[in-house]
Write a structure and sequence with these properties.
This protein is an alpha+beta fold. The protein is built from ten helices and 15 strands. Strands 1, 2, 3, 5, 7, 8 and 9 form a seven-stranded antiparallel beta sheet that branches. A four-stranded antiparallel beta sheet has the order 12-13-14-15, with no helix packed on it. A two-stranded antiparallel ribbon has the order 4-6. α2 packs across α7 and α5 crosses α6.
């Protein structure tokens, strides 16, 4: 029998009972108000293993120290606001970013190993590099990338010091920062969900600036657990939960003596597991694809390398009075490292060695980017 197009009362009731209600995520189509679901905001996942609140509390606690570091490095009054913290995935986070960004990777290598990234809008990266080098209209070339890497290195060092005090983990170390200016779609963002600290940055130029700090899921989980006092491996101190019974640190279970426990109630703990601190390899700089391409263009350019034994100052009359056999005293002590210069700029220090019948220099120290910048007269 064909319908005349009119709805029956049963059909009307069924439509009204389901109006404005989405189906349950478990597959049920009932019309109970509690079954309605709302799409979560892009920053929230609800299933992360890391504690966003703990991360926000810690990174907020070090913003004053980071502001002081940035002010000292740039010579300007720089203020970093306490961050907003949230969980993102790649797609939702890229939607927050401008089209061109500077990505500075400073991954943790030990302690809480994993991805650790700083991101700046291109204009904010230029503003910081300009303050550091005292140059206007700066381009984000290799020197600017090195300067921004040094800024992040100083910030990460401050964070690690505070994080070590907070978590008592003395093995925290990070790789030397490597920076690249790329389109946001090409940015190396962690997979899955990750934690983001969203900072506002005041560089004293009257313009709003942003900075994002990213922790991959693994370091975010480990760091938040360390902040909350949970040891890696699932043990929590003080007091151990064993099968529903709690054993305090000051005593044992009745009639039972744990290995290493003295009869007087004092604990004779076994040998402490001490691990050596691991430091990043500073002798091998890391370059992103963008930087490596730029450097490849000048790989065959010749440069003058000089080894300087020492220097001294003399009056003109002393110089005119020099002859064969005159001894000139230099400003270096015996055994001090000599300076290695490239195009008259100090890049390293070393010690003099003899190879067969020739002199040579063994490099013992690479000068940091900040020292090189100061040597160029940017300070």
């Amino acid at each position: 029998m064909m319908s005349d197009g009119a709805l029956s009362q049963d059909e009307i009731d069924a439509l009204l009972s389901g109006a404005g209600v989405e189906s349950s995520p478990l597959g049920g189509g009932g019309g109970h108000p509690q079954a309605a679901t709302m799409a979560p905001p892009p920053m929230a996942s609800g299933s992360d293993d890391f504690d966003v609140g703990a991360l926000k509390g810690f990174f907020s606690s070090v913003t004053d120290a980071l502001s002081s570091n940035l002010s000292a490095l740039t010579g300007a009054t720089v203020t970093l606001s306490p961050p907003q913290a949230a969980s993102f995935n790649r797609d939702s986070f890229l939607g927050q970013l401008p089209d061109k960004i500077t990505v500075i990777s400073a991954n943790y290598t030990s302690g809480f190993p994993g991805e650790h990234i700083f991101i700046l809008p291109e204009e904010s990266a230029k503003a910081i590099a300009s303050l550091m080098t005292k140059e206007d209209d700066i381009q984000l070339d290799d020197m600017a990338m090195s300067v921004l890497g040094e800024v992040v290195s100083q910030m990460v060092g401050t964070q690690i010091t505070s994080l070590t005090d907070k978590t008592k983990n003395k093995s925290i170390a990070a790789a030397s920062p490597s920076a690249a200016n790329v389109p946001k779609a090409a940015a190396a963002i962690p997979a899955g969900n990750f934690a983001v600290m969203d900072y506002n940055l005041d560089l004293g130029d009257g313009k709003p600036h942003k900075m994002w700090e990213i922790l991959g899921a693994t370091p975010a989980t480990d760091i938040s657990a360390g902040i909350n006092g949970i040891q890696q491996g699932g043990m929590q101190m003080p007091g151990m939960q064993m099968g529903g019974m709690q054993m305090g640190m000051g005593g044992g279970m009745p009639g039972m003596q744990m290995p290493g426990m003295g009869m007087g109630g004092m604990s004779n703990l076994g040998p402490t597991n001490v691990q050596a601190v691991q430091f990043p390899n500073l002798m091998q700089p890391k370059f992103g694809p963008h930087e490596a391409g730029n450097i490849g263009l000048i790989m065959d350019v010749s440069m003058e390398m000089t080894v300087e034994l020492g220097r001294t100052r003399k009056l003109i009359k002393e110089i005119l009075g020099m002859g064969e056999g005159t001894i000139i005293e230099l400003d270096k002590l015996a055994g001090e490292p000599v300076d290695i210069l490239v195009n008259h700029k100090l890049i390293a220090k070393g010690e003099v060695v003899v190879i067969d019948e020739n002199f040579g220099v063994r490099v013992t120290e690479i000068v940091s980017p900040m020292e090189r910048i100061n040597d160029m007269g940017y300070n």
